[in-house]
Design brief:
The structure is a single chain. This protein has 173 residues and is an alpha+beta fold. The chain folds into two domains: 75 residues, no CATH class; 74 residues, Alpha-Beta Plaits, CATH 3.30.70. The chain contains seven helices and six strands; from the N terminus they run ααααββαβαβββα. The chain has a two-stranded antiparallel sheet with strand order 1-2. A two-stranded antiparallel ribbon has the order 3-6. It has a two-stranded antiparallel ribbon with strand order 4-5. Bound molecules: iron/sulfur cluster (SF4) (2 copies). One iron/sulfur cluster (SF4) binds next to helix 5. One iron/sulfur cluster binds next to helix 5.
């Protein structure tokens, strides 16, 4: 068990729900496989290689991506420098299955004029459905969205997160 978990966190059962950090693009999808391949002794070469400066070392000494710092351009510099195969790309494999998700705290849903995310999206993946009283609900086209995260930082109320699709069995749960 993680020695860093506090007693109070254990009592609240938080260890059950602890999620691993969001890993860089083209990371091994299975977290256990990623953790086995990515050795903290590498020193985070991918972190240093990222020209967008959006990779940092997580508490476990392995890389995480932080969209609040900027967007991923999918340049693959992080993959190219990774010596272990924890980040690996074969052919035209997709970097990940992430897409943008916009929470109900969105200003536009509340009727405040804001199109910051739509303006930031280079893929035109975000549309707005006009409603009553000046409201406009943003919608993300999951087919077009690349999960680049460019829409995250411009949002003034931090309403946007990058999420993987929820498996069908979890929908049914
Ligand atoms: S693909 Fe490029 S921009 Fe994206 S995390 Fe890797 S190095 Fe950074
Ligand atoms: S993650 Fe990128 S492609 Fe997807 S909606 Fe945001 S800016 Fe557009």
């Amino acid at each position: 068990m993680d020695q860093n978990l506090s007693r109070s966190a254990l009592l609240r059962g938080q260890w059950r729900s602890a999620k691993p950090p969001r890993r860089p693009p083209w990371a091994l999808v299975d977290e256990a496989a990623f953790a086995a391949a990515c050795t903290p002794s590498c020193g985070g070469r991918c972190v240093e290689a990222c020209p967008e400066n959006i990779l940092t070392l997580a508490r476990d000494g392995r890389p995480q991506i932080q969209f609040k710092r900027g967007e991923c351009t999918f340049c693959a510099a992080c993959v190219d420098i990774c010596p272990s195969g924890a980040l690996t790309r074969q052919g035209d494999t997709e970097p990940w299955s992430l897409t943008a998700r916009i929470a109900e705290t969105c200003l536009s849903i509340a009727g405040v004029t804001c199109r910051s995310c739509g303006d930031a999206c280079g893929e035109d993946a975000i549309g707005f459905q006009l409603g009553l009283n000046g409201t406009a609900r943003p919608t993300v086209d999951g087919e077009t969205c690349t999960g680049c995260g460019a829409c995250v930082r411009p949002c003034p109320v931090d309403a946007i997160t990058m999420q993987a699709p929820v498996p069908a069995e979890e929908h049914a749960a």
